[in-house]
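Record 1 of the preview.
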Amino acid sequence: MNRRNLTLLFLLAALLGCFFQYARLDGFLHFGAVRNITLGDAATKQEPWADADSVARDHYVIIYDPTDVPSMYARHNAEKMDARECEAA
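->
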């Protein structure tokens, strides 16, 4: 390979590295933030459901594995949420 091809490959690798780093840092999500205002307006204009108080509460059964750490975290978080709802009721 000649020196020109090596230089072009190095520049291409550097540009791709910058591109992927920018994409990794959510740069493209904030790139057109001014044009994305309508989505936020639609979410704030929703009114609460009028019949929410008359609906029966949901009941869940949580099956967990005591030897699995994520399963134990799910059980613990469910117990915390259940305790908060019982205190509020």
